[in-house]
Request: fold
Amino acid sequence: MNQPFPPNSWEARAERSVLYGFTDLPALKEHGPIVLTHGTGIEVHDVHGRSYIDANAGLWNMVAGFDHAGLTAAAKAQYDRFPGYHAFFGRLSDQTVALSERLVELSPFDSGRVFFTSSGSEANDTMVKMLWFINTVSGRPEKRKILTRENGYHGVTVAAASMTAKPYNRHFGLPLPGFVHLSCPHYWRNGEEGEDEAAYVARLAGELEEVIAREGAETIAGFFAEPVMGAGGVIVPPAGYFQAIAPILRRHGIPLISDEVICGFGRTGRLWGCESFDFEPDAIIASKALSAGYFPLGAVILGEALAADLVEASEKTDEFVHGFTASGHPVGCAIGLKAIDVIVNEGLLDNVRAMAPLFQERLQALTALPHIGEARGIGLMGALEAVADVGTKAPFDEDLRVSERIAARCLDNGLICRPLGSAIVLCPPFIVTESDIGAIFDRLEESLRAVFAGIG
Ligand SMILES: *Cc1c(COP(=O)(O)O)cnc(C)c1O
Reply:
């Protein structure tokens, strides 16, 4: 740290007592923590009265901003009415019923069933257990393997971390056996010399066929994919990708699970990412924007066929023995109902669509800077890939910590954005205005120019 914080400061107290998760410790040592007190609109404010535009909407989730009066009113009203309950033993709150119904209604499924969790990780683990339960009870106990893609992010619990094909999970001795990782569908980075997008998609489809042949379809329980990889650095799949892989999975009897924890509820400009990329999943995993970040809430939404399979398996064993104490929490569900209302009926989704062209245009414009190899995105999500050489796509030396330096410079400029590998990720709240987008990109551009000038 440049200057030690006084012993009674929030920063020093944090240093003594808080265990940081997902925090780059060299950067933390240099800059210290930022301790926040509150937020207004798309900004958060720290204990020193400094303000930052949060161009990451918290962690993708604070889509209605940090002080939405309708959402806090819904939370207060439900706390006054029924501040907590579970959903075990056939006892559950009316709000849980209402939100389940609403989610099925908004889903791409004609009918289905919903199971609530407190997070996206728990929702993915729940989905894995559902598939294992269905297959085990119906006499196919060997149909257990889970397919995901490199760089995909599905969470941090043991199954979800095994699905998350990021190198850092080796520090935990993960993945567990039976979690199989395919290639990341990133054409700009992984397409071969002279290979067009269609040929690249055909190669990925061929890989999937090979993996299924090698492992045996009868051993594979499901394929999980984010429509757009979020925490992998906003990887938008190449055109035709899902149209190529979905039929292969169907032919082999492997359910396709759409992990919509980031894409769901409007991030891509449609309510669901699977709508933006035009494919039909067998189940949807939701969280993050589901409560607009105002409550820890996740959900598994099963389509008709998997819902019927799960009900049948449960009847065979008399019970689906799974659930969290906070599953279907009445306050979470009341907030979820209100968040959906705000997104669908009060103009948030419309605003994503209205602002996306300007957002993507400002993002693309930054490729004019010397070290931006790729600008990519859809809706209100985007990433910039910093490279040492735009022509060869050669990455910067990791020791230069370029994306960390860009993010740090942005903070000095009152802008929160996220360094992810060699990329900078932006995913502002859905309430952004034209002038907010102007401010975000003006601050980002200044930061990029300053850092690139320092590197030479
Ligand atoms: C954030 C995320 C998760 C994990 O959600 P948590 O609430 O952090 O457990 C799972 N899948 C995707 C796609 C995510 O972005």
In short: The chain is about 40% helix and 15% strand. The chain has two domains: 34-67+347-455, 71-345. The mean pLDDT is 97. The domain at 34-67+347-455 is CATH 3.90.1150.10 (Aspartate Aminotransferase, domain 1).
